[in-house]
């Protein structure tokens, strides 16, 4: 005969499963909105997604859920649950507490506004016209400010939004990390610029490199990485992203420039890193909030690792360059050293997703500082383009020629995702620390990559990071896997070693 606690856990899990089903359905509607939905479907899609969000919110904040959590959170009860159930109570309890603070009308308005904002952003970006996006962005900023007030915070309203992506992280913790990293990157960038060497890159852009061939090559690399196409797919989108509903349904997107042979592969490997994280979660966690990455920073560590530490490495291209040349004969005659140097050229640029490893985090600082100022009310929305241009000049020494090169290039603000951008830099830091440990524990890792065996890394990541999903916090995972807390030294050392070799400079 089952105990009352066991029955309560089962009923709690059943309710959680139903809520997650609604979230999964909403994720598919969102994916469709950004990929295949007819242009005129936007307004009704916004209503559909808002309805699902309302249903999910009502179930999450229902008396039934409150009773389950009240019973299962009791001292003497929670401790006796199995590890998965304890983690589920913790995570659902966190979501419940947040939902309790969120007015349903505010939630519906956010969902509807951001669903409509996507189309406006696409058109404004195509027209290079920030003024076209400005009214809806002003509304999104206001909605996020209201959400921050509803959730509560100690110091900055931005903390309440940051917590959604990197739980527990605050502006007070983040600002010193960013300043320290900037202090490390500036001397490296100056040394590179003063080296007198500029890698040749023209052959990367002497297409056309047909879209179908680029997609086929990207799909093959994804298969080699271990991405399971029986549980996932690759499609096109204006801004690459990954989505899905479970470890058995993961959606990747990429974009293709027929005059840039590296761009589609780079974005595909990036999103593939996200996708393999989701596919690698223990299937027992499906239909629960535990079946996803523990934080956006850890998630980004997986995408940045595959995109950069693998995809821009000499070992990787010693195997894949001949295959790329067979696909695109125009690249014949380009030796490994020239190609490796070309894809690792360091040059300040306008587009974040195409930025090199050295300058990438300066792009994040531009966005972070602007969106933090918007949420804290120290900057108005109509000041964004000018502020963006000023920070690009200060940090990267370049000025955007138009809004598409500037404040309209990223999709995140149209999604309402304020607090997201810092996780990209955190992902870079995590990725180098994880990769350092992976090499220590797998002494042949780089040789395996050089022979096209990418599964050594994939299997290690599955075991050490992916399988636990959200059962462990980011801090717990980093400490367990690497033996120490997050340490930016690994990322900085990696950059100096790699680019010191390419540009013949010393630290």
What would you say this structure looks like, in words?
The chain contains 21 helices and three strands. It has helices at 4-35, 42-60, 63-72, 83-100, 104-127, 130-151, 157-162, 171-193, 211-225, 263-279, 296-310, 314-327, 336-343, 360-376, 384-396, 412-415, 422-441, 445-450, 455-466, 474-482, 489-503, and strands at residues 232-236, 242-246, 249-254. A three-stranded mixed sheet has the order 1-3-2, with helices on both faces. The radius of gyration is 23 Å and the shape is globular.
Low-pLDDT runs = none
Mean pLDDT: 94
Q: First CA to last CA: what distance? A: 68 Å
Largest sheet: 3 strands, mixed
The tally of beta strands, per DSSP, is: 3
In N-to-C order, the SSE pattern is HHHHHHHHHEEEHHHHHHHHHHHH
What's the tally of helices?
A: 21
Report the β-strand fraction as a percent range: under 5%
Fraction of residues in helices? Answer: 55-70%
Gyration radius from CA atoms, angstroms: 23 Å
> Largest sheet, order of strands side by side?
1-3-2
User: What general form does the structure show?
Assistant: globular
Structural class: mainly alpha
What labels describe this entry?
single chain; about 500 residues; mainly alpha; three-stranded mixed sheet; 21 helices; 3 strands; about 5% strand
Question: What is shown here, in short?
Answer:
By secondary structure, the chain is mainly alpha-helical. Helix content is 63%, strand content 3%.
Note the topology.
Layout: H1 4-35, H2 42-60, H3 63-72, H4 83-100, H5 104-127, H6 130-151, H7 157-162, H8 171-193, H9 211-225, E1 232-236, E2 242-246, E3 249-254, H10 263-279, H11 296-310, H12 314-327, H13 336-343, H14 360-376, H15 384-396, H16 412-415, H17 422-441, H18 445-450, H19 455-466, H20 474-482, H21 489-503
Parallel strand pairs: 1-3
Antiparallel strand pairs: 2-3
